[in-house]
Amino acid sequence: MSETERSLPVEDGPSIDLRVFLPSLIIVLIAGVYLVLAPDHAAAGASVWKTWVTVNFGWLFLLVAAATLGFCGWLALGRYGRVTLGDPGERPEFRELSWAGMMFTAGIGIGLVTWAFVEPVYYLMTPPMGIEAGTAAAMEWGHAYAQFHWGVVPWAFYALP
């Protein structure tokens, strides 16, 4: 029997890796019980952690976002941009324009369904960095945040699997 004629062993069903599943389950259960039994305390703790992470690591998020955009550009414009996925000589199922259209539509679709219209208003009413809600400054920040979330930079994340 040649190498290509061998078949993979068939399993009866999906298996669960208990080394991954059990610790994850325990963490989720502990967090869930804590959130149900002490929601105010949990919300205050989450707020403290969120503030600490954004104050201390906001720069890292921006750096990773810019690096991801640069990496996608390097992949697309470099020699790896011409690599064909699939069997040699196989034609792609979709043309590049169709694929780009599907990626664009999927990204825009999920964004429009969830946040695209709500986000500027959300930041107008709950602006960051101590800006007074409902002011012109809050409106500017709301639109700036929306541009950051819906502009070119996030598409680098959508382009990577």
Automatic annotation (TrEMBL):
As for membrane topology, the entry says:
Multi-pass membrane protein
What GO molecular function annotations does the UniProt record carry, in alphabetical order? transmembrane transporter activity
Please tell me where this protein is predominantly located: membrane
* GO annotation, cellular component aspect: plasma membrane
- Cell location: Cell membrane
Instruction: Give TM segment ranges.
Output: 20-37, 57-77, 97-118
Keywords linked to the UniProt accession = Cell membrane, Membrane, Transmembrane, Transmembrane helix, Transport
The cross-references to InterPro entries, in alphabetical order and at most eight, read: BCCT_transptr
Q: Mind telling me what this protein is named? A: BCCT family transporter
